[in-house]
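[SOLVED] Predicted holo structure with magnesium ion

Edit: marking solved, answer below. Original request kept for reference. I posted the sequence and ligand SMILES and asked for the 3D complex as structure tokens.
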Amino acid sequence: MKNQTALEVHNLTASYQRKPVLWEIDFKVPSGHLIGILGPNGSGKTTLLRNIMNLMEADSGYVKIFGKDLDEVRSRLSYVPQRESVDWNFPASVREVVEMGRYRPGNLLRRLKSSDKQKVKASLEKVGMLAYADRQISELSGGQQQRVFIARSLAQEADIYLMDEPFVGVDAATEEAILSILSGLRDEGKTVLIVHHDLQSAYQYFDWMILLNTRLIAAGPKEAVFNSTHLREAYGGKLNLLSKLGEIIAREQFPLREPDFKEKEGSGDE
Amino acid sequence: MNDVWAFFSFSDPTVRIVSLGTVFLAMSASVVGTFAFLRKRALVGDAIAHAILPGIAIAFMLSGTKNPIVLMMGALISGWLATWAMEYITEKTKLSNDTAVALVLSVFFGIGIMLLTHIQHSGTGNQSGLDQYLFGKAAGMTEQDLWTYSVVALLLLTVVISLYKELKVYSFNPDFAAVSGLPVKAIRRILNLVTVLAIAIGIQSVGVVLMAALLITPAAAARAWTSSLKIMLFLAALIGGISGLSGSLISYLSPAMPTGPWIVMTLSIITLLSLFFAPRGGALSRLLKQRRHSQKILNENLLKVFYKLSVERKLEKSGLNVAELLAERAINKSDFAAAIKRLKRKNWLLAEGKKLKLSSIGLVEARRVVRLHRLWEMYLSQRLNLKEDHIHPNAESMEHIISPELEALLLKELDFPTQDPHNSPIPYSN
Ligand SMILES: Nc1ncnc2c1ncn2[C@@H]1O[C@H](COP(=O)(O)OP(=O)(O)OP(=O)(O)O)[C@@H](O)[C@H]1O
Ligand SMILES: [Mg+2]
């Protein structure tokens, strides 16, 4: 299954109130990779995700998933929205939110089966949140909220995962934990697309990259995408220093953290 | 008083009809309103309520009757039109959502008032009573009205129960629901429809102007008591029902009173009480919690003083007197006395004549506090490289907060140090 085309975005143009924010985006993504979607603020990363999931209508172009239209393969797709996009004061427990991962057209108007509940527990266990299953979501830290969202996504048992900034506002320990879960998915042959804005860690985290700034700058294996020409093109003159840094990181295979580095202040998150 | 009894005996059929009808429609509005509250659509509910007025007026003008089903049809159509208009304007223009809501509200309401005025001046004789839709008057309710409201209430309840899980995910995270393949468009339409329905029957009792309060306030009050959506829906219905009942009671006792304002009045009182007394984030529970915390801090600070004086400086094996303690740490006299009392009650301090000394369990507790203080100082100086003189104040506050789990982590992290940065020994329990 690996390296079959998981996602194809074809000549996609999208706009808000006639103002285009994505121009003729065209790329294919093979399955079984951890893929970073990178670009400066306002470059259209979230908009690209929304288009892939058909949450907004494109002006032109199309998206195919495993060669099919979204509606035919919806159950193979899972979405982790930006953490701030929901109201965490909503009256629900951690378990209830993860159970939403098992809601689908097939069980409309019906209660969840015990097999669904098992999967919910297994997902909570994977992200280390089983102990918090009955906790109210309003009482979670940012990192725990993110884990809950990941657990909900895991409960969907999809083949393609689309995540919007899953590493924002989490501590280093949680970041590492999430990354290892995502790598695990990749090793099972799943495709994971992640909107990410930290260039410094991007090279280490992903094996594929999509570099965006309203138009597509580059898409491909990270070695081909992550170079100073592309980065400068995406981030403009402002980021000369960063792009130089990126080049060094790429060239020297520089580890970004000492291997045994542990966040000492992380305990507040547990 | 007799009147109150007469009301609650429900022997008068009018009382039965009016109070049952009001309770039903208040409950419907509260349940449906809970979703509006959670989706932060309070203003939309207000706009729909106002927008229903022209529908009622036109239905009356066309049919010439005040038949509830006919008027409700009119209400539904204009409520639906308003909902659609708000969505359309938000989606297709650059106007923000609240501008669209305000626009629809004022345009529809303006037309409604204009038509109502026209009807009032046309003098067909049958027109009186339409103005009750402004402030609500339950007293005119007929048996036919009651049947209509019961059926609608039952319908709403069925919808909310059978679509419970879909409504939950749609209210919490609509984008996620859409990507999961749930029919969000249909869910939204159904939710809009039941909202318009609940409002259309609700304004009979509450009136256009106060309808939004009946939609939103029960949910707000219920939220203060619970964090479970199921219980919240149930509580909102209960609170709405009680308000409906008391509104119709007052209306019964003094027939000149409109029902709506009294329903909303009762609701407001319940809500204020809920916000004050509720365990979850209520003002009272917060006050109590703050008091508990400051007592704990004082207790522990006193224990520290005892520990320093009696164990470390080996003053007076026979105990300490109040002057010695106050000399070591300035605490206001009445707080001090109260704290000593608490410590005695916990058996952490023992009195010997006028003097006080630590008991064995008090000593364990005192050691714990001193240990946490010094461990935290150690942590700050080692890990954050804070200067010595910056360490103490921070540790003063943290020592009261650190839990046993955190203490275990700290100990492991620091590898069981024996001295703090000022070279004072760190007391372990044995
Ligand atoms: N709902 C909207 N209406 C109008 N314009 C929008 C809307 N959402 C986004 N935009 C605009 O579209 C452009 C792309 O936005 P998008 O959110 O896709 O960027 P992004 O790459 O995700 O940015 P960030 O890193 O800040 O999340 C921005 O210029 C933004 O101002
Ligand atoms: Mg974004």
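OP edit: The interface with chain B takes residues 17, 53-55, 71, 74-75, 77-79, 81, 85-87, 90-93, 96-97, 100-101, 103-105, 108-109, 111-112, 136, 138, 152, 156, 264, 267 of chain A (CB under 8 Å). Thanks to everyone who chimed in.
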